[in-house]
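Reviewer 2 asked us to include a model.

Predict the structure of this chain.
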Amino acid sequence: MTDIFISYASEDRAKAQRLAQVLERKRLAVWWDGKTPTGGIFHQVIQEALDTAKCVIVLWSKASVGSDWVIAEAEEGRKRGILQPVILEPSVLRGEVKIPLPFRMIQAADLTEWRGDDLNPEFQKLLTDVERIVSVETTSGPIEQSLSSEPLGTVITKRNRGKVLASWFTSHPDPRWLKAAPPLFRKLGIASVLVTVPLVVYFIIQSGREANQVKVGSPTPVAEPTATVSADPSTILVGDSATLTWSTTDADKVTIEPDIGVVDAKGSIQVKPASSTTYSLRASIEEKSWKTVSSSVRIYVKTEVVPISDHVVQDTRVGLMWTRETVDDQENWHDGEKYCEGLTLDKYSDWRLPAFKELELLYDPDSEATIFPGGYKDFHIKTIEGFALGTPWIWSGDKHSGKALLMDFDLGKRDTKYLQVPGMSVLCVRNPSE
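Predicted model (structure tokens):
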């Protein structure tokens, strides 16, 4: 099985090879088409590697954004939720060369100035994201595999100055043993361990000439906590309340965040979030902190507006005035800011870009969505009544370190984009008159 599949244009082959070599030094299994075996049917080998990959890295450049192969491979990663984009060239970063539309909403790593240094901060961020994707894919394998009576790893031994060193490799480690093993190894003089999850554990003992496998037996079963949480209703108007209801089993510590803290094993509580909020329920066995499960529910908070002219609506809950329609396909964030600040509409000239929390109140997950056609899929625009958005992606005025927040009215969440990214839309807002 491949950890990482790298998709790139042939013009970027040297950069792809450099990235693959550094990732392999991190003990990740990397496939790129430089590894296609002699005599292999090229497209068949690529498909097999792509199908088994846990993470797909796509290298965006002037050459790759126009490659049908690269786009098709990236789409496969996007559909499986394992795509990690990388930007190779400044022209792509600045938006002069446009990434295909369906992939613009996925945050890309910036390796425009990377030269192969594995301590580079941008590379370290990429490595963290890739390892997270790979580990999620690994731990979500079929239950039948984790209950196998056969070892799910291999032991490699080698002689070194009269001692046999044993190394453990497994694709399905049990997190309980990964946390508990090191101090236990030191006490017993154990060089390494092979886990058959969760039935049998083999400890590999150092000796003068060979590595002895000692069958120790199964770890003592510990009941797994369970946790569920729900909200009624799941969408509310600004100022209204919702009820959180939860239930847990086999846990001695239960918490709900944000703002609630430790709670009973079962119960309900009224909450009044000021903006859309995800409440996370965590149930754990305190003495065995790796025995933790979580469940979450999102409460969407929306407002409502009434028209006051053909082009302007007013928020009945907060009082803000909004332009009813978006201005689309802005060259960048700065153009959107200039548009709003220079706008005169219905005799008002104090328009501005909205804060993200103001934009978020316009999202309605239960609305009858408007369809926005994309190149590879149709997107949905879900807003409260009264607005006519041209695209799902609207800039906010919140910016920091060369990036700004935008509201995704397709997925109902925030995203972060570089200020130079083109193709987004703007709505303008003004504060209520004194």
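The chain has four domains: 4-139, 145-215, 226-302, 305-430. The radius of gyration is 27 Å. We have added this to the supplementary material.
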